[in-house]
Every structure is written in structure tokens, then in C-alpha cells.
């Protein structure tokens, strides 16, 4: 099982650092979610984990090796990434896009082998896309499309899945649908999932481990019980939250809230 | 993991459809080939063409077919294949359906070199015409390198959007330089340059075939071997990195191949536009976005398009000719407008 550690990373563009001296170890086989206000650096951190952005200082370690020193193809065999802005060229079918997930395992012209087909069919089955397999992606709804991208990441056959706001632009039912799928993959396959979520209650309900960030720094991390407290939400989001317990997960959720400063 | 049937019925059907499309294109090229062999001042019946091809014709028939028409047809097909493949690569890596080799300054750079050459050799008759393709190729290569260098940014490397914008700007700059140079030309020389820029299959002998063929023999298999990488580069950048593609390195190789293909083609055909834009686009409508099939279909469509354009250009105003580039533009412009209108929706 692959281990992911973030050690003293500083990330940014030339002079301004967006993430400063942040260390956190992603627990393997669990769902970890990064939360924080807009501009806190959560997507930036995720991009450094995904080796899209270089760290100015510190490093991200995959199985004890700095991710930038590993061959990008080797990383892709252990860690799959679903960016927020994933777009498919017109005319591509679901099967074709999912088959691209086999990229790091292929050589040469890219003829699919038996093992590749097995992964692709499995990824399409588990995401419930079997009946859409030969449809062009642009003909699908937003929720189905997000499933296709998850299926592509799954076909990559990695231990770790990194997702940047996988529920954005989806309606309530489809958001839950995607998160339940990720939960199932974690439970049944033991995959490590790292993601950024905007919805605190979804984060609390589906995560084993939460990472709260503000101004490029780690404020608190741990089990939702430790992170989702009235005090932490006040520090991180500047809100005065009414806390409750989620009937489905027994984790804390935010029932409603007011702006903290205006209250006083 | 249970065993699945590898391909669904619908995927097998798609595969069959791809083979039918490839076959149809080859047949269409062959038909145009025979028609083109018959096109010209001296008429030959299809039977005579076939007889001559198999070595049974008389001396005059042999001269017309083997020394004039056949090399011209072969050049037209090769040029079309080269330009279309070049365009398919550019559209793939830039994720922009309106990218074509002209955007990399390939036509403009070649045109400028040809114009400089003509300005310094006032009489085209005395000029070593065989130098032209070489110079045109150097011109396109140099322009592409300048555009690449200008759009390169430290830490970020090359982003397709900046490459396109720089390309358009540099091509515009070169075009204005050419207008200034035009003033220095004699009317005859101007005519030669204008015909060259319009894109005609003027290099119609076996030497030009030989100067073009090696590029295609090397570069076409090279880009086909990169189909899988083109597929991934055609997605967004972050996804491509996540899948483990070394995007910066692969882009550079593919751009170089694209410049080589278009530069070699333009050096014998002059500035034929639209082929690199339209052929890959039509191919995508026919077979989708997978480069394993998109690249060969684009190449065949490009070959067919230029051969057809050259044949039409030779036959409608006999005995004079309309450059193939103009015929392609007349055929291509409406399609281009249709494309723009559809992109707007």
C-alpha cells in the first residue's frame, strides 16, 4: 500500500507563497479531505501532491521517495488525479476515455491487452456506466460525466485517488452519488482517497481524516470529531456555527451559521 | 475479476466502420488518380492510361504519364498527407479545432524565403530553382523556432494558447515584411511569387517527390507511434500529467514533427492553406478523437483533397491552370464558415 507524506512544503509563484511550511501525513486506506476558505491554498496543496506544481521548499513523499524525483509514469501507476477542470475532446466515447486511464501501463502504439480490458470494464461497471459505454461524453449529464472521469482514474489501477472538488457543479443527489461511490471504493477496495471539498458537512460525513487550512497554513487535522468543532470553524471560516450530529455518520455537522464578526 | 467479452457489439461495429472509411478513402484516391491521369491537354482514355502504366504505351504517352502527370499526382497526394497530419498534431496538442500549420508561421516563413530569393535572383530563369524547396524549408523551420522561443516561458514551458497567439502575431509580421518586399519585384517575378504563395503543385517532377518522400516515410510512422500520447495531450494539461505523460518533452517532439511535415510539404507546394485545418476536422467528424484512427484518416483525406483540388484546377480552365491552393480555399472556405458558425452555438 502506497504512503503519501507532505513534509514542510512551501508552494507558490516566484515571490508570493500560497502554502507555507505545511506538513501532514495522509493516512493510507482512508478518506482524507482538505477544507478551508477560498484562497486558503487547498487546491494548490492538492496540485503539489499531484506533482503539477513544484514545491519551493520541502517535498511530497510517495513511499518515502520525493515525488519530483520519481518518474512521472511510475507515480501515475500509484496515484491517479482528477482535476477540477477535466475536459474531454468532442467525439470521444465513454469507453475510449476510460481506456486512457491505462496510459501509464502501456507502451508503444497503445493496443489494449487483456489486463487493460479487464480494468476498463471493471471501472465502467463499478461507476454504473455500463449502458453508456459507447456514448459520446458530450451527450451525458454533468453527474454522469463526473462518473466517467472517476472511472478513468479508476482504470489507472492506483492505490491513491486525488480529487479536486469532485462534487462541484453537481446537484444534491448527484453530489451524494459521487461521494457514496468514493466511499464504496474506499471500503471495498481499500483505496486511499484525498480530496478537496467545499461542503463541510459532506467532508465530515465521508472522511476519516480532515485537514483544515487557512492562509496557506495547516490549522488543525484529525478525525472529523476533532476538526469539526465550533471553535475550529470560527478560526478557519470566521463563522459562528450551530453544531449537530449527522444521523448517517454520527460525525459532527454544521446545522446553520452566522458570520462571527458581525455577531459581536 | 470476471472475464468480459473484450469488445461490445457496438465497438466491433465502430471498428468495422473505421475500416470501411479507410478503404473508401483509398478507393476515392485511386479513382481521382485515374481521372487526374486523364486530365490535361492531351487526352488519354482510361484504357490507354492503364496500358501505359503497365509499360504498353507509346513513347509520347509514356512521357506524359511518367514524366509530367504521375510525379505531379504523387506530389499532390504527399503534400496533402503531410499538411493534414501536421494539422492533426497541432489541433491535438493545442486542443483547438482551428489550429493549422499556418499558425506556426510555416507558410509565412517559407513564403518570405521564396520572396527574398526571387528578389536577389531577378530572373527566375537563371535562378537555381532546385534551391527553392530547401530555402522554403529553412524559412519555415526558422520561423517555427522563433515562435517557439518567443512563446517559451521559464517555469511554465510552452502553453498551447501562447503558442497560437505568438504564431498568429509572427505570421502577421512576416506578411507585412513581404508586402514591403513586393514593391521591389518586377511584374514577372511578382507573378511567380503570387502563384507560389497561392499554393500550386508546381514542383511536378520526380526530384520533388524524392525531396518530400523521406520526410513522410520518417515522420508519419513517428507520429503514429505517438498516437497514445496525442490522445492524452488532447485532454487537459492536469489530466495528462496525472496520467504520467511527460507533456513538455512530448509536445516538443510532436511540434518538431509537425513543423517538419508542413515545412517539407509547403516547400514543394507553396502556401496551400485550409488542408491542415479541414482534413483533420472532417476526420474527427468521421471517426472521433482517437489518434490511432484519426491520424491515418486525416492523412488520406488530406491527400484526396489536394489531389482533387489540383485535378479540378488543371481541368476547368484548360489549357491554363488554377493553383490547387485556390481551389482548396474555394472548397474549404464555406466549410470553415460553417465550422465557425457551429462553434459559436
Automatic annotation (TrEMBL), chain A:
Alphabetized InterPro entries for the sequence: AAA+_ATPase, ABC_transporter-like_ATP-bd, ABC_transporter-like_CS, P-loop_NTPase, Siderophore_ABC-ATPase
MF GO annotations: ATP binding
Keyword Transferase: no
Pfam families: ABC_tran (PF00005)
Keywords, ordered alphabetically: ATP-binding, Cell membrane, Ion transport, Iron, Iron transport, Membrane, Nucleotide-binding, Transport
Major subcellular location class: membrane
Keyword ATP-binding: yes
Domain ABC transporter: 4-240
Signal peptide: none
Membrane topology note: Peripheral membrane protein
Localization, UniProt: Cell membrane
Domain of life: Bacteria
Protein's recorded name: Iron-dicitrate ABC transporter ATP-binding protein
UniProtKB/TrEMBL annotation, chain B:
Pfam family, one: FecCD
Residue intervals passing through the bilayer: 20-42, 73-90, 102-121, 127-151, 163-186, 206-224, 253-279, 291-310, 322-341
Keyword set, alphabetical order: Cell membrane, Membrane, Transmembrane, Transmembrane helix, Transport
Membrane topology: Multi-pass membrane protein
Subcellular localization(s) per the UniProt record: Cell membrane
CDD domains recorded: TM_ABC_iron-siderophores_like
Family: Belongs to the binding-protein-dependent transport system permease family. FecCD subfamily.
Protein name per the record: Iron ABC transporter permease
Organism: Lysinibacillus piscis
